Amino acid sequence: MSRAVWLVRAEALPLGRKLAAALDAQLYQPWLDDGASGREQFRAAFHLHSHWILIMASGIAVRYLDGLPQSKYSDPAVVVMDEAARFAIPLLSGHEGGANALAYEAARLSGAVPAVTTATEAVKPLTLGIGCRRGKSAEAIEQAVRQALAGRPLSDVREAATIDLKADEAGLLEFCRRHALPLRVIAREDVAAAAGLARRRTGCGRTSASTAYASRAR
């Protein structure tokens, strides 16, 4: 797996460097090359990497990609992000290439909202809010999840959500890995804002309910 981050403006360097360092990705700054245009440079580099994060407007990304995609089974994964890290959008090879998973990973690192549009995920009716004590095992988390689902299958779950304080919780990460569930990490400020809604709707303002409501709010 070879990852890369492509920028179009120097203003995106802080975000680009953060993502490149965390993802062990190559960082491209095309303005440093006085020869070919940024688009020409990107077209030459496109097939050198299996996973791309393009920090640019989606319209620019579409023009950069024009004529490059061949097959969802062989094309690199492409995720588009805006410079303010508001959204991470899988644009190409969401399932087969791993762009959906990359979008969630980039979102966890940057605080962006993962905007996954593939139908398989879009039609799933449930968001699973999870809060747990430090050190809880994947097995204990699964037991609690099964109880909460009350007979509904895990295949009905679009994504799991938790507070940023639990972003590195080993048991939670392992549970999500076992069931191929994307994990959306919600900033504690957004969790606090959603807690009132969760309390009014469910009578519970805990992390599990609040993160589920914060995630569904998008």
UniProtKB/TrEMBL annotation:
Matching InterPro entries: CbiG_hydrolase, CbiG_N, CobE/GbiG_C, CobE/GbiG_C_sf, GbiG_N_sf
Biological process annotations from GO: cobalamin biosynthetic process
Pfam families: CbiG_C (PF01890), CbiG_N (PF11760)
Domain called Cobalamin synthesis G N-terminal: residue spans: 41-121
Protein name as it appears in the record: Cobalamin biosynthesis protein CbiG
Record-annotated CobE/GbiG C-terminal domain positions: 126-195
Species this chain originates from: Chromobacterium violaceum
Origin superkingdom: Bacteria
